[in-house]
Amino acid sequence: MALAFDEYGRPFIILKEQEQKTRLSGLEAQKANISAGRVVSQILRTSLGPKGMDKMLQSPDGDVTITNDGATILEQMDVDNQIAKLMVELSRSQDYEIGDGTTGVVVMAGALLEQAERLLERGIHPIRIAEGYEMASRIAVEHLERIAQKFDFGPTNIEPLVQTCRTTLSSKIVNRCKRALAEISVKAVLSVADLERKDVNLDLIKVEGKVGGKLEDTELIYGITVDKDMSHPQMPKQIEDAKIAILTCPFEPPKPKTKHKVDIDTVEKFQTLRQQEQKYFDDMVQKCKDVGATLVICQWGFDDEANHLLMHQNLPAVRWVGGVELELIAIATEYATLISNEQSNYIFSVGGRIVPRFQELTPEKLGRRTTGESSSEMIRRLTTFSLSKHQSMAHLD
């Protein structure tokens, strides 16, 4: 093998055994492509069904994954053939659109390719085979619509959805807790679903895992859980009637974009620099206090000086909160909802805007929450920071 360059300077490879290589065409090329797709299908065939076997996958880094989920298996497989990559894309599309059946679609595609190979050997053109599959698909869909049964469900009648969800968990590792997990899944989807438009924004559903817990400890939280500590250990761990400032600007002095150098040769210059820096922090903290914020959630970290001032100004703060969590917090506190119960308690939430600069912070952009007579239902475990349409409180270790 040698490397050469053409007249435009583009490199290309010269193979010494080029005469021994042959280019497939016609029926042989079609059979080779079908064979590549069938190989992927046969790998997943043993993972299909309730009695399907799990696959043990090892990544190049040495991480081991045990699963029978078709999308996960194909995602971690090192596939080079372009036709096999189409099978991977098929499984990924099924997972994105439906969320289940990733193994079944690949096995079915492999079976269709196997039958197509027999038709090709009989001299039928590939276009005619594709048209026949499309006609069969339309007939199958019409037949399914005729025999389909309609199940009525609603917020108070979720049993049909739970039974349907249980069938998708039968072959998963979570099989022993499929009833509880099915109920959690259905309630989570219904809480964010728009039943009139028949639309579900799955981005509003987040799954958090905790190392060391049991599967039976799984809990559905109608809100947002951010696993963060307060920026200072002496800050209060519980905040009621919180007014939340959601910031994407850090608590630090402004940094010039050009290179600079500061020479400090006297104590007076050092004191002047320190006073100026402290003034920046005082102004930032005071802006938050002036608008009435009682809790600060920041995407970036705090300087030690700013963290000290926040603690002394009785302004609790949480730092290093991801951008996705900030958006969810803003969405959760954006809703204006009035909820009543038998004791006439109510919770009213409004506001919630992400603020990129301290100068743009106003009382209207705070996420607020007001409770009625009792707030005992607001108490959560002291291990999470929880916000929602129904609660805006912080509980931390």
UniProtKB/TrEMBL annotation:
Compartment(s) of residence: Cytoplasm
A GO CC term attached to the entry: chaperonin-containing T-complex
Keywords for the protein's UniProt record, in alphabetical order: ATP-binding, Chaperone, Cytoplasm, Nucleotide-binding
GO molecular function: ATP binding; ATP hydrolysis activity; ATP-dependent protein folding chaperone; unfolded protein binding
SUPFAM superfamilies: GroEL apical domain-like, GroEL equatorial domain-like, GroEL-intermediate domain like
Predominant location: cytoplasm
Family matches, as Pfam families: Cpn60_TCP1 (PF00118)
Family: Belongs to the TCP-1 chaperonin family.
UniProt xrefs under PANTHER family: CHAPERONIN (PTHR11353)
Name assigned to this protein: T-complex protein 1 subunit epsilon
Organism: Gossypium australe
Lineage: Eukaryota, Viridiplantae, Streptophyta, Embryophyta, Tracheophyta
